[in-house]
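Example record for the data management plan.
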Amino acid sequence: MEEQYFDEMRQQMAALKEQLNKQEIVSDRLIREIMKARTKDIRSTKNMCFVFAFIAFICFPLNTLTETWSWTFTLVTAIMLIFCLAATVYIHRPVERLNLMTTDLATVARVMAKFKKQYDNWLHYYTPAMVVPWVVWACYEFAWKRCPEGVNPLWLTLPILVGGGIGGAIGYYYHCKAVNAAKDILEQIEGK
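Corresponding structural encoding:
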């Protein structure tokens, strides 16, 4: 009787072992390490915003030498940059406060979902509302207001539009990098 009981237990253990071998077991620590690595992409996006704003603020004193832009335009641009930096810090702050190694995954998922939503809203609603009027004003300041006689002002808008296109492409790349990192973290949590 006892031998039969042990045989049944051996068979059950063998079946359980076979079933466990078929399943993919992912450790919680590995998931958290992957999430930690992906937050570096989010952090690098914020850092690049600071780098580009710093470069812009360094270039502002050149306005006094070249007088390319009016002081009003320069001041509005500076205020817009400060607002954008403050919004970037505000959106990134909850992600930076997370300790991915100890915080429960439900909280991490909630913070990442909120971050992704705010970042997408920033790109789709706020950016066009600020950038389109700013580019139009820059074209007016640079091309029409300062246009030398005999030169078509449309030709002078090209540098602004090309620069805006390049800057927009760089910004969109970093935006996608941060959003994809948040999406990857959410998929890691849901896949667990």
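Summary line stored alongside the record: The chain has six helices and no strands.
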